[in-house]
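Quick note —
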Amino acid sequence: MCVLTVVSQEHQATAMTRWGFRVAQAKEQDLIILWVEKGDEAARAEEVSLEDTADPQRQIGGIPEILATLAELQDALPAGVEGPSLELKVLAHPERLEGVLREVELSAARWLVVAQPRGPRGQGRRLGRRLFRRVRCSALLLRPGSSEEQPFRRILVPAAGGPSSLRALDLGARLARKDGGKVVALYVEQGSDQLAEAVGQKILGDALRAAGLESSTDLTVESRVELANSEVAGIEGVLEDGWDLVIVGASGRGLLRRKLFRTVPERLLTGNESATVGVVRGPRPPSARLREGFEQALDLSVPQLERDDRVSLVEKLQLQSRWSFDFLALIALSTTIAALGLLQDSAAVVIGAMLVAPLMTPLLGAGLALVQGNLPLMRTASQAIVLGFLTAVAISFGAGALVPLPQLTSQLAARGQPTLLDLGVAFFSGIAAAYCLGRPNLSAALPGVAIAAALVPPIATLGISLAMGEREVARGAGILFGTNVFTIILGAATSFFFSGIRPNRGLNRANRWARTMLVVLVLAVAGLAIPLGSFLVSQLRAVRQPGGVTQELHRSLEEGLATQGYELTSALWNRRGSQPVELVLRVVGADPPREDLVEELAQRAAAILKGPVDLRLHTELVAESQAAPTAPTAPADEPSHFIP
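Predicted structure written out below.
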């Protein structure tokens, strides 16, 4: 176990060496000082002994300052006090972040001490923040003050009771004992009533006890409750009292750390009396480590998109996911083609409409926005999806009203009972579309993906069914379209994530909407899975009834219809608990069926299924031409009958 202190800038060498020594002494652990510089080849850190101070080859970067500071700190130890075991290493690596992370693992470090220097952004600032976010062990991110030689007598630790704030309290108390100072544990409570301060003292006392501290018995610890409208405002007021050191437990939201590092400390970090500000974070939880390992495994096993390909992909989806005249024209044309194909019961025409439909692009854009946390792209894609849906429903409703059919065609009926299998088709279609879109050499496969996804035909079925008054079919078509939309977005997001597109972890708070949206989509798909599963179960029951009941029922219905000159084309049924079995028959014949035939069929089915039956008979009238003209048969008023 050791404390690993990272130094990458010469002007940080002395201050960071002193801080590493302090933390190692307070934690009673060994100390490793790691000087990091950019190298041409990745190599293990090379150890440098303290006797190498005079070696000209060791006069690189901040090594002389580090060696001199370590010697000074050892000489300053009181007699009989043994300091931490010291080790100095030099690391040259083309990717400094990856090199340091590897050294942390190899050295089994329990704490990482790294600097967040003042001034303009640079390599030192980026390296410190990235290490603080990604390292697995506990971490201390520092902004050293104007003087690191003076002891820290006044230490402020804002405490909220979280794991990181407890570690900050423990570290502050240890440092205060070493320097003979005092740590003030601060809790900010909203001053809403007279009991606010007592409530704050109770919460603060619980936090101190959880950290193994007690202000009543430990003279180095003092508790303080500040009444303010917000946490940040309360801390700002206390900071004006002047402190040698401020240690903050990293907030999961990141707001407090940004406030302290970007606005509040600016007054403290200027002038000769500026304070040192540190942020403490505990070890990364197992879930974060598992996610990191999973991402690394993906990077090694799945071909990742190159930077130019990612830029081209984002540009393409941002431009083509917008609601525009071209999008309107394509959605109108594809819906019209699909509606005509559904009305004339032509599968080839419906497939052609799938190829014209533009809805797949904004769905892929929404998937990309979900992975990136790109809120503007999500808004643009959502607008195109919603407006495209409404346009398609309006056009298909008009087509259904202008071309009244006596009954649903088989193409319309087929989209009225989606199943869980359609959910699987949509999910893998989204994965395939996103995968092909990111790789230009696979663009030829996109038309096949568009056919598999089948986005416009369900909308056209919805509009036509509403115009015909077929609410059950309209409900099924709506469920199918919703399933396609939500599941394709999830599939596209999965594919983009596997291809190397990751969210910006530096914008966790800004990306919170993406995590919320992901949960909403998963819950929506889970909700849609209920009716989809019900449809699937009903179809499986129709095929897998014990004792050959389905075959018996089918033969009986065929016999009853054949005696009257009708041919049975399809029979669908659904059993819903104790309710009567719903049985839908589609037949072909020359004349409308008599009502007693419908009753006879219902009785046959009830006898075989051992229960009441709601039977619906859809008849397709077919007339053959004769050699001599005959008197026309009067059209039937009711070609479809329903007998409960």
